[in-house]
Amino acid sequence: MDESTLFKLVTGSTAQEGSTLSLRQNERLLAHGISSEGKTIAEQMLNLDMKEAYLAAEKDAAAHQVWSGYRIKLLASKALRSYGFDSGKVGSDAILQEICRDANEARMHYHSIGEKGLRKAAASICDKVEDAGLWPRGNGLMARLLMNMLELEFGLKPTIQDSFPEEESAAPEIHPQVKTSTRVLQILSAHPRYTTDDLAKLLGISSKGVEKHLAKLKKSGALLRVGPDKGGWWKVLEIR
Q: Which end of the chain offers a freer environment for a tag, N or C, measured as fewer CB atoms within 10 Å?
């Protein structure tokens, strides 16, 4: 899958969930880590998470992995990470298994059902996932991701939601006037469980650079780490 297709898939799908990033803004974010002024941290993280989910889905498709509830939950943990709930818990494991059976049945009989039959199966899976409400939020994102994964496995052009938000020509593209340390605090204030890698992706800097900012903020008393490195969270005491 080329970058252009990836960016269109992410932009089109997240737009259905309320993201206001245009295709050009997402290209800057997903390719270069450049954020756009006026766009919330939450929606930008959502788009970054979906990029990672699509890359993981493409990798699984290329390996012709059998669909399973465990595999779908792993993809959900990437796609829905910014929502903050446990994506390993679904509303109905029985429905999830049914969706996997439908997908594996279509995969097994691809040579007899052809492209038309596979696209029909992919669209049916998309509808089932969205209607089932397996997760508290983001069911549409997962529905489109799984539909596209089935299409990609057999070299079909993925179905793209091409209703993209329009570019806001008058808005500046980046906002260098905001200090990186301040942006770190703003992000962690909204998402206290984000990791160093999460921050690095959004800020467009290295993980080591993030660690330096975190160390300075802790030393200055603006930031506190609660709990262990794995499983703990950040408490913002002051945004400077």
A: C
Distance of CA 211 to the CA centre of its chain: 23
What integer pLDDT is reported at residue 76 of this predicted model?
A: 96
What are residue 8's phi and psi, to 5 degrees?
-70, -40
Spans of the chain below 50 pLDDT? 169-176
Instruction: Report the alpha-carbon distance of residue 56 to residue 231 in Å, rounded.
Output: 23
Q: What's the pTM?
A: 0.75
Q: What's residue 170's pLDDT?
A: 42
Angle between helices 41-62 and 3-15 (to 10 degrees): 130
Q: What is the dihedral of CA 148, 149, 152, 153, to 10 degrees?
A: -150
The model's pLDDT over 166-217, given as tens digits with 9 standing for 90+, comes to 765 443 344 445 678 888 888 888 788 888 888 888 777 888 888 988 999 9
**For the chain, which domains are there?**
3-153 (1.10.3290.10), 180-236 (1.10.10.10)
Two tokens at 91? 């509303």
CA distance 219 to 31: 33
pLDDT score at 93:
96
DSSP 175-233: -TTS-HHHHHHHHHHH-TT--HHHHHHHHTS-HHHHHHHHHHHHHHTSEEEES-TTT-E
Q: Are 47 and 186 in contact (CB under 8 A)?
A: no
Distance from C-alpha of 72 to C-alpha of 75, rounded to nearest angstrom: 5
pLDDT at 190: 77
